[in-house]
Amino acid sequence: MTETNDSQSTPEQSGDDFEKTLEVKSRRKASARKAGKQSPWFGLGMFGVIGWSIALPTVVGVFVGSWIDSHWASRVSWKLTFLFLGAIVGCAIAAYWLQKEMVE
After folding, report:
1. What is the pTM assigned to this prediction?
2. 39 exposed, middle or buried (CB, 10 Å; 0-12, 13-18, 19+)?
3. Which of 3, 54, 76, 103 has the most neighbouring CB atoms within 10 Å?
4. 99 lies in which domain range?
5. 63 domain-assigned
6. Segment 55-82, tens digit of pLDDT
């Protein structure tokens, strides 16, 4: 008995995907041409968004870690642990903002 695998794409489906991708990219290129060159203030604003996206979770992580360290004795430095976790979360948020800006 032969089973068919529906997860495999047919050439028509992959051609449709290619056309959709091409259409999205051409729209993006046309909107970028229409918008023109970005001002330096836009770049500075983007630096600010990315900076705050990283700094705020890192500082919150330090405060949470300090609070845990002051209330419960442990061999683990929670301040340092939450500092790293905050930095990782901040970098993920910054990557999201960059990805969102690159797509638009």
Report:
1. 0.59
2. exposed
3. 54
4. 11-103
5. yes
6. 999 999 999 999 999 999 889 899 999 9
